[in-house]
Design a protein that fits this description.
heterodimer; A: 485 residues; mainly alpha; two-stranded antiparallel ribbon; B: 111 residues; Helix Hairpins; 65% helix
Amino acid sequence: MAEHAPILIIVFPLLAAFLTHLTKYVKLERGAELVAFASMLASLSVLVISAPAVLAGRVISYNIGGWTAPLGISLVLDGFSFFFCIVIVVIGLLLILYSLGVYLYARRYYSLLLIALSALFGIALTRDLFNLYVFFEILAVSSYVLIAYKRRPRTLKASFRYLMITESAWVFFLLAIAMLYGLTGTLNMDGIAQKIPMIYQSSPYSLFIIFSIMLVAFGIKCGMAPLHSWIPEAHSQAPTPVSGLLSGLILKAGIFAMLRVFYLFFVGVGPFSTILLYVGLITLLFGALMALVQDELKKLLAYSSINQIGFILVGIGIGTTLGLKGALFHLLNHAIMKTGLFFCAGIIISQTGFWKIERLRGVYKRMPGVAISFFLLSLAIVGIPFFNGFASKLLVILATLKQMYYIPGIILLLGIVISAAYYFKVLRIFFNPEESREVHDFVPRPVGPFEHFAVYLCVVFCVVIGIFPGIIFPILEPAVKVLLP
Amino acid sequence: MIEINGLTIGIIIILIGAYGILTKRNLIKMTMALYVMNSGAILFFVSLGFRKNSSAAILGDWAGLVVDPLPQAVVLTSIVIGLGITSLALALAIKIYEEYKTLDTSNLKEK
């Protein structure tokens, strides 16, 4: 069982994606939802079964079709991909749980969501460069359709813009793969990594070109500062669970692939971590300052995602074990916190019909549970002690100070202060004692227990990880050990 | 002197497509430019495996040199991906036209 774990993790959601369409022939209430939930639980159980071996440092590799490494495609489950798989499973279950309450979503929606999740598992596990490209394209196509799911004019526009920006970058990524294949004669990542020092001797400039193309391609996926322009529109226009998918997992997939590829290929080559450090600082400040001036709730959350991505990039850019640990920890925390915040925003918007923040005055009287969850989650994302954001931000800042990067450390603190400013601006309006009396013709959608349950689950995760950050370290440390042995 | 072969032509086609995406304001033309870019990358990749005076790598008559079969296999997949992306972009363009009655990006006002 354990030796087949890598393929099984990908296959379960992919199989379920097609089974959801068949549930209309079965007399079963909400069959598609059941299939979706069961497939994620199946992937989770495979992960749990393989956990003891992987966390002990063993690497489970699987060759598709029995073709061994240089010829075939190999899937590898090591500590790092295990960590990202856990993030995908947790967020995926939360997304499906939230979607259960919304009767709007049909079989097609669950099918697309499952395809996206299985592509994410593929990104986490594959060791073949072209296979990575294919999984990213599967993820991208399903996310374009999911963003445009409601077919409102602005969602269509956001989806088209996302498509144009990403695909033009991924054409260049295909070019970079072709160049690497031309230089090394293999597409297997380990095989390429072995030949990189030799290429660095003979033609360093081609490696620099490949590095910059990959930086831009992954940077567009993860929302680095000058390449972020698709994020605010897509995040704010997508249906709520899809905003959670975009912010919680698709941005993280860019960071994951960047880490995987750069640490295999470019460790000894150039100052790639220094570039990431400064790009991360720009991203952090840019996202924070842009979030300050937003007047739409979901756009503010989208710019806050850019801000937190900057934090993660800085943690990677420091290049030490401590910084990397903080960055990966923040990756997990941000996925949970931001998914929870988008869920809160989705419930509030579906109840009031207002997108603008100032019209949501006194919303806590109508929805006390959601407003208090929003309050706790924003405390967590700002980094108040006893919440999970504090632990990971502390690790990143300690890592900067340890490496004598004092000015970046100060900028990180500045970013935290600005993020506190814009979240507290929202909270002041939410908890205003006088309620907004604005009336407009809007029929609120009934919100069921599942949506509230998903939000409360996010809050519980944040508080538990915040008080006991040690429970994450058993899966965090093997992940860091894979990258920096 | 730059040698003119599949690799250089592939790069030139990619740059033509990139020019189209950056300058055109019509959704259909942008989609076409994207597909042109994709074709350039495909030509670049498939030319990597090319060898002069060699035959296809099919079992049976191994008469001397054969071309590298891996780029051809890989390129098939990326042609399919390009087709999927293009058709999705066109579908979105049709839907946008139905909503806004225009394909010009500068006329897509907030609605």
